[in-house]
Amino acid sequence: MNWFDSIILGIVEGITEFLPVSSTGHLTIVEKLLGHSIDSPAVTAFTAIIQVGAIAAAILYFRKDIVRLAVGWFTGLFHADKRGTDYRLGWAVILGSIPIGLVGLIFHHLIETTLRSLWFVAGALIVWSFVLWIADRHCDHLSTQAPQRSAESAGLRGEQDLTIVDALIIGSTQCLALIPGVSRSGATISAALLRGIDRQTATRWSFFLGIPALTLSGILQAITNVDEISTYVGWGPTAAATVVSFGVAYASIAWLLKFVSTNRFTAFIVYRILIGLVIIALLVTGGILAV
């Protein structure tokens, strides 16, 4: 892989990782357009590794929250009388991250080969758009039940109201993001909205649940595919893409959190459907091959 391609892919990763549009789906599409073999173990590993750059940006951005939850969790482990909200939320992050780890390990071969087909990417982009639309409207319905009252009294819940059950359901839904095109953030945000959680909290917890899963995935790919990366991609371009994804993702996080506080996800839904239809049109006409 040349340096130009790696920088382009780093930008794509940084922009799309935390938006509900599927970063893996976009990386798969762009990798194909750049002439790379999207079902190659080296390219698959490259895709997972550069996501660590975006996750590092999330860790830096939410460092105070991460430290707060970690301290609350560790303190609660040894002092039962100090098991407050942060202790519970710490367990929520841990338990909510387990499902995607197990499913990813069990079905990793299917994920890295068959599901990388652009037919799956296009289909998932379109189908999950409707799920996100339903979740978005459900949130609207709850927030307008009592327009003169607070979000809590209208039926929406914030971070302090999150339960272990919420985390397990949202974390289990995150497993669907192993299908390129679904979107990890799109899956978790949709599940949270359907659980009656407000948009900003749903988005924040999409970050929190993504940090353990994507970090471990990137490290595992780097270790198990070190030879493929060295031979077919190169650690220089891989490192460059990771650094670029870090910088772009940091800016993307700040923008997204500000956007979701006052906006629906309609723009993302329309975008997903249009991209999916364009890919299908290219596949049908032979303008691009599925793998």
As a percent range, the share of strand residues is under 5%
In oligomeric terms, what are we looking at? single chain
Low-confidence stretches: 148-153
Instruction: Return the domain count.
Output: 1
Mean pLDDT reading: 88
Tell me the Rg in angstroms. 19 Å
Separate helix tally: 13
Number of β-strand runs: 0
Q: What's the overall geometry?
A: globular
Approximate helicity band: over 70%
N/C terminus separation: 18 Å
User: What string, H for helix and E for strand, traces the elements in order?
Assistant: HHHHHHHHHHHHH
Quick one: biggest sheet? none
Look at the helices and sheets and give the structural class: mainly alpha
Written overview of the protein:
Helix content is 74%, strand content 0%. By secondary structure, it is mostly helical. It has one domain (3-285). Helix 1 (3-16) runs antiparallel to helix 2.
